[in-house]
Write a structure and sequence with these properties.
The complex is a heterotrimer of chains A (about 230), B (about 220) and C (about 45). With about 230 residues, chain A is an all-alpha fold. Chain A has six helices and no strands. Chain A has one domain (about 40-225). Chain A is globular. Chain B has one domain (about 1-220). Chain C contains one helix and no strands. Chain C has one helix at about 5-45. The longest helix of chain C is centred in the middle third of the chain and has 41 residues, at about 5-45. The chains are: A mainly alpha (about 230), B mainly alpha (about 220), C mainly alpha (about 45).
Chain lengths: ~230, ~220, ~45
């Protein structure tokens, strides 16, 4: 890794760390407790940014998959795959923190609401993405196949959301909490979203770097074999 | 355009001819779909109150899983006999191959549905002649075939290919399954057209989007 | 202060998973770097 990258990464890690500390401070000390649902509402400040990041991750995969099929540069494949990895981890967190929030508020772990269900379907699609990648007969094919899934899977998001919305018209989450968002709440949410977006960028840089290293190892092995 | 259509038909007809001779796919899929129908009827019961809610679900589980078996076979047969390489050597656009295979898969699924659905309706003592249900089935099967043809071409080149197709296919076709079940419920309940319009619209949108998207990306799946 | 347990559980899960992932990435990076060094060394010889 050269100096420019090291500097950029250093700045990003610093920024991410500072934002995360600020986010924690705002969530637990600065923002007042929401009146109706109580302290549990504080999950919202991390649940929503995590959901946002997982959606962003799959969108980035969609774009990089198109760019990979078009330009055939390994870096786009590395970014697409790293982004799915981070996206799947964050979707897992959405699917865990969602029920933890729902249980004390609505008395149920799971509701087939449009957002939760779409997250679940997305999670399954991108698990399949990772599986195809690891089970492809050769890495080049895996890269192409996963790019196709990255494109075709993402197109499904709006259709799934729309369908589930029609399917379950009763919709508990439209009212997140009664009072609506006050200014301190919105501020806290925005800082949390910024913190998690920076965390996402960091993780993708780190993880796509590993993909590049793996490609390098394959290249060196071929040289060695000759 | 006309030329492309002839080529598509040639590929489609090749699959049909192979199938007429071996009857490898249709029969096995048909038996499998009927078994799903029967097993699920045992599992859920067939009382009059159950029929309304669970019957459409049972039909669509049978058609979906039957469809997966059929889709797995169509490309696996090509792969086993190294016919896929031969097909790829054809001097035609990859999109033509996609549409040819798509037409074949759709026809197989439709043939299975034509047999399974009346048996299903009879088993649950429902009216046999339901033109609206036919429309639902055609729209849903186009959706299945559009996504399924793309993914089976993809899954055939992975290890564990038999399990790869359902893992890829099922989450993506969730909108089709939900819409098909909901539309079937309204048909069986004898509800007016307006009630199923939403579901038909979703399926039409899905079909168009995936036919276009799969046509565009299919070449990346089959390139060597 | 009711439901504090749920809140703690949610935040613990998030942080455990994120840190676990970062740790996993770092270990993998070290392992790959060692492999690259070893391969480069053996090629130069």
């Amino acid at each position: 890794m050269n100096g420019k990258h090291a500097l950029r990464n250093g700045i990003l890690w610093g920024l991410g760390f500072a934002l995360m500390i600020a986010a924690l401070y705002m969530v637990f000390i600065y923002v007042p407790t929401e009146k109706h649902t109580g302290i549990i509402q504080r999950i919202f400040y991390f649940h929503v940014p995590v959901a946002w990041v997982s959606f962003l991750a799959f969108f980035i995969t969609f774009i990089s998959s198109i760019l990979y099929l078009w330009k055939r540069q390994t870096k786009w494949d590395a970014i697409a795959c790293a982004s799915v990895e981070v996206g799947v981890i964050f979707t897992t967190l959405v699917l865990i923190t969602g029920p933890i929030w729902a249980k004390p508020v609505w008395g149920i772990w799971w509701t087939w609401d449009a957002r939760l269900t779409t997250s679940l379907v997305l999670w399954l699609i991108y698990i399949a993405y990772l599986l195809v990648r690891s089970l492809a007969t050769e890495p080049a094919k895996g890269a192409r196949y996963s790019a196709v899934i990255g494109i075709v899977g993402f197109i499904d998001v709006p259709i799934v959301f729309l369908t589930v919305n029609m399917w379950r018209t009763q919709h508990p989450t439209t009212i997140i909490f009664e009072g609506g968002l006050t200014t301190p709440m919105l501020m806290t949410l925005l800082v949390c979203i910024a913190a998690f977006t920076v965390l996402y960028v960091l993780l993708v840089i780190q993880s796509s770097g590993l993909k590049t290293m793996e490609a390098e190892i394959r290249r060196l092995r071929i040289i060695k074999a000759e | 355009m006309n030329k492309a259509f002839t080529k598509i038909f040639t590929i489609f007809w090749k699959d049909m001819l192979t199938e007429f001779r071996t009857r490898e796919i249709i029969i096995s899929v048909l038996v499998f779909a009927l078994l799903v129908l029967v097993i699920f009827s045992f599992a859920f019961g067939t009382g009059a109150d159950m029929t309304e809610m669970t019957a459409p679900g049972i039909l669509w589980v049978a058609l979906t899983f039957g469809g997966i078996i059929g889709l797995t076979r169509t490309f696996a047969v090509e792969k086993e006999n190294s016919r896929l390489e031969g097909l790829m050597l054809c001097p035609v656009d990859r999109a033509v191959i996609y549409w040819g295979k798509l037409a074949g898969s759709f026809t197989f699924m439709l043939a299975v549905a034509v047999v399974v659905t009346p048996i299903f309706l009879a088993l649950f003592n429902l009216p046999i002649f339901l033109p609206r249900l036919a429309l639902v089935i055609v729209l849903a099967l186009i959706g299945f075939a559009s996504v399924g043809t793309l993914f089976s071409a993809l899954a055939v080149n992975t290890r564990a290919r038999d399990i790869m197709l359902p893992i890829l296919f099922l989450p993506v076709v969730v909108p089709v399954i939900v819409s098909a079940v909901k539309a079937t419920v309204t048909v069986l309940a004898g509800a007016p057209w307006g009630d199923m319009l939403t579901w038909l619209q979703i399926m039409i949108a899905f079909d168009i989007i995936y036919l276009v998207a799969a046509t565009l990306v299919f070449e990346f799946v089959v390139e060597e | 202060m009711e439901n504090l347990g749920y809140l703690l559980a949610a935040y613990t899960v998030i942080w455990a998973v994120v840190f676990g992932y970062i740790l996993f990435l770092q270990r993998k990076q070290r392992r790959l770097q060692r492999q690259i060094d070893a391969l480069k060394g053996s090629i130069e010889k």
